[in-house]
Prior knowledge:
Elements: H1 3-25, H2 49-55, H3 59-69, E1 74-83, E2 92-105, H4 108-120, E3 124-130, E4 138-144, H5 149-155, H6 166-176, E5 181-187, E6 191-198, H7 203-213, H8 225-235, E7 237-241
Antiparallel strand pairs: 1-2, 2-4, 3-4, 5-6, 6-7
Helix pairs in contact: 3-4, 7-8
Amino acid sequence: MSATVGRYLVPGLIFTSLISACSAGKPVEPPRKPSPAVIVKTTRPVLTKEQRRELGFPDDVITKVELAAGSEAEPFVVSVVVPSENLKGEKGFEKEKLAGFSVRTKKADDLIASFRAGLRVRGYLIFRSHNSYGDLPDIVTVVKGNNSYDILKIQGTEALNYQLDTKTIIAWLKDKQRLGTFMITGGGSDGLEARFIKPPKNMLSFARKVVAFAPDVMAHGPRSVEKLAEKMKRTNGFYLEWD
Length: 243
């Protein structure tokens, strides 16, 4: 063996021995697979048989709306004040009450238009109780009632920042019926939407009255009264909103 070969062979043997020693002392573990991602889906409450009996709505009312919406009925619950005086002098307490049922759908306008008249003659009202503005399905709700103003009473629609309670809002709406007839098709705690049966002759004038009563409609929509009037003509309706 030449000196040159020996010079390279000895370190190589030492390096190989070190690797063997390390391998013998600690076995090489195979790479671990990443843990599977866990996706948690929120479960929505489905209207139970007991709740259906409690509501007392005809089965065909619930079933037909479910089929048209393509989703199962969910309980629609409201808070009511139960009169009761306790030792603290409190005159009542809030209690949840089952008041109707809701479905989720991306075709809320069509659903409401299709069922509104038929349900109303049977003593029921259908309306949009939550607007997702296209990102997610809207929530459409059915409750007992004969007048579309009942929607605002059930939802407790008010504008605390403007000192407007439900009664005041309804009074304003009734007064504007002389300019153009309409009915409520949507309602929440701080806003409502309506569809014209007979549109106002002067839509620009009507739009000015809307903005004066509910200034916040300009914050999330048309930036001028003229554009708001155009939108009201195009959609054949209007909305009120308070932040």
